Description:
heterodimer, A: Rossmann fold, 6-stranded mixed β-sheet, B: mainly alpha, Serum Albumin, Chain A, Domain 1, Glutathione S-transferase Yfyf (Class Pi), Chain A, domain 2, extended, metal-binding (chain B), guanyl-nucleotide exchange factor activity (chain B), zinc ion binding (chain B), Vps9-like (chain B)
Amino acid sequence: MNRVDLKIVLLGNAMVGKTSLMQRYVHDSFNGNRPYQNTIGTVFAAKQVQVNGVSLVMGIWDTAGSEKYDAMTRTYYRGAKAAIVCYDITKFSTFQRAKHWVRELRSIEENCKVYLCATKKDLCDEGFVSDDPDLQNTVEKYARGTQTKLFITSSKTGENVDKLFDEIVQDFVSNPENLQQVEEAIVLSRKPEKRYCCTVI
Amino acid sequence: MYSTKTPTLRIDEADLKCKNGCGFYGNAEWEGYCSKCHREHLQKRRAQAERTSHSQVSDTDNINRSLSAGSHKEEKKVQQEKKYKLLNISFRKPTAKVQGYQELYHELLKDNPDLEKIKAENRDLLLYIAKTPIEKDVRKCIHSFVVDILQNKDIKRIEELSEITQNFYHVFGKRLENSTKYADIPSDIKEKLLDYVERYAMTLLYRILFCPPFTSDEEKDLAIQKRIRQLNWVSGKNLECRIHETSSEVRELVYTSITDLLNMDSAKAPQEKLACVIHCCRNIFLLLQQSVDGPASADEFLPALIFIVLKANPARLKSNINFITRFCNASRLMTGEGGYYFTNLCCAVSFIENLTAESLNMAEKDFNAYMSGECVPANTWESALMICESLHFMCEDITLLDDLQAKNADIMKQAEELKNKMIEFKEKIKEDVSKVIERTPLLISHSQRIPTNLDSEDFESYQLPPPIIPQIYPHSIGDNVNSGVMTDLSSDLMRTSLVEDSVTPSPTFDFPSLIGDDSLEASKGEDETSLISLDTQSDVALGESQLFKKHMTDSLIDESPTLEANLCPPVLKPISSEDYHGFTIQGSNIPTIPCNTGDSSTADLDSDNYSSYYQNM
Ligand SMILES: Nc1nc2c(ncn2[C@@H]2O[C@H](COP(=O)(O)OP(=O)(O)O)[C@@H](O)[C@H]2O)c(=O)[nH]1
Ligand SMILES: [Mg+2]
């Protein structure tokens, strides 16, 4: 069984629900009822899934969203294969920040696929009105224009959360480049093996 | 979720695509290529450049190294920097030496307590694989990797060494999964093996790969250290980090996390260093939990970590970060918890490096005042933490001093040993010499006879009339017949006294003054004009200084007879000449003789003549 690492970063303003999203996916829990929640903070999670005969180790990284740390965010998404850019469906300003990350990811981390994720859909369903009524439209237009996949999720109900991560895994596995590495490595392993023999005899 | 409608924000896709036409998106930063094509493009260009200026590169490299070494010496003021140089001398010297890699390999293996520790810690694992083909294979893999690094350490750049290392981890990981040798072992053992191999190889190569002299790691260490010291006034409030410093429990956790972070420098293997970072970060989460109620988020964690880094000011921070980045198994950094915390540490460091008044939410003026040291923080606990840093430095200094003391003691011990050896050697030589003397007493008596022998060669010269004889002659000037008898008699009488003379040089010959006198050369010309002079001193002076040198090298005992012989001719000549015309006529010939005596060869010749003459007689 081949082991492949998949690094996923979560980006978004503070309080948009990044941690909740991760908790929902990894531990299938939300806020108070967190049976798996350890006492330590929940900023990192690893989850292993089997897809197409490949053992995929997902490392999910929560990040500091404050603008103060903008300059360092690059360090976070270095080597990431997927980025979930979150915005709060009820707050227009969080979408503005989301656009900034999409732009930056596109320009800096070429091999990182970007996913737009609206959070707190349940609030919307409950009739909570966003501070910008046209937000949903704007986002959809933007997503189409930049060819970014958009998911509207709720960590509270778990709606669309698994769908989002499944999509990420599928996209990752379907890109031959990501699995190519594995084959390359096998070829590489042959060459030095011969050398080991040479050095010993 | 995809729409078929024409998007309003659409950018022309062709502009976004890679210049190479590979179908991926391009980017202005990558000269219009996509990342993959750009990398290939760069590699091609780099390869070209390297081919054309390979020799130059190594030259300039050397210059750069020596330059950086030179500029180092200039920044002597800060005590810390001095300390680093001391440290570096101790661990850079061996790498600078030109050594066969095998020698170096042995040196690295020998007396390495860290390696022993790793072996002890992994005893169960090693027992599990002991005496199986796996053990042999693991050893083989490590060996070939270490040799690879040792052979390339001076030729390749650190990035390439890192690549070799990462490739090794990857290949070994694949080998564990695909090779039939490892088919039977459970996957948890495989994981442990992979970890063990990394730990062992990196600990072994630590001295070579940590802060190597051909990188700028050291300068960066000093820069960040200086920067952090400048920022020691930054408080938790400035960073908007919520640490409840009033709680003693929280304070205790702050100290623990600082210690954890400081421990990173003394750990060797990358995963051990990473473990220190993990400990530190977990403690930060614990203290945040105490401070913020409930689990902390990334937005609370990062400022707290920055705070801890600022207060800890860890030694060789950049070197440690670079070492982990380059030589820690990349997969561990990518998806492991350690990798996450490590990335946060990198972020914290980069925040500290780029920190401005704005990022601390304070006025430019206040910021500058703090930076220049005009203002000092009012918070007592924060100030106490500053002392914490100083205490840490003191500890480091103490260990450094201990180290130096140990070295000093060692040197003293070796010096003492050397002294004893010298004394021993002296005694031995003395003993040997006295033994030889005891063993060959005849040789000594023989050597005592040597002057006698030398004299016996000139034995006939004793029969020569002594210099006093001229005093005798005047009495018998007219009495030619008696003169021969007289000479014989007087020579017999004088012989004993002459032997004595030959043993103790005549006090009238003051050689040192003759030789040391530079005026001899100067007076030479003058002497040539005064050939007639009967003065023996000037006659002798006429002779080449070589003659005197020869005399000096010979024993003084030889001196007198030769001189005696030289002095003799004037006296003897009358007798030697067959047609003897009496002393009066002979006397007119005397002045010419000193001229000949000046030349040693003629002097010898003369003495030969004399001996033959005496034989004839
Ligand atoms: N109703 C609702 N609340 C949410 C949802 N996701 C997050 N929240 C709340 O939003 C707040 C911030 O969430 P958190 O995950 O800590 O945000 P982060 O700062 O981005 O990590 C918390 O009080 C959550 O309970 C959601 O899907 N629905
Ligand atoms: Mg969070």
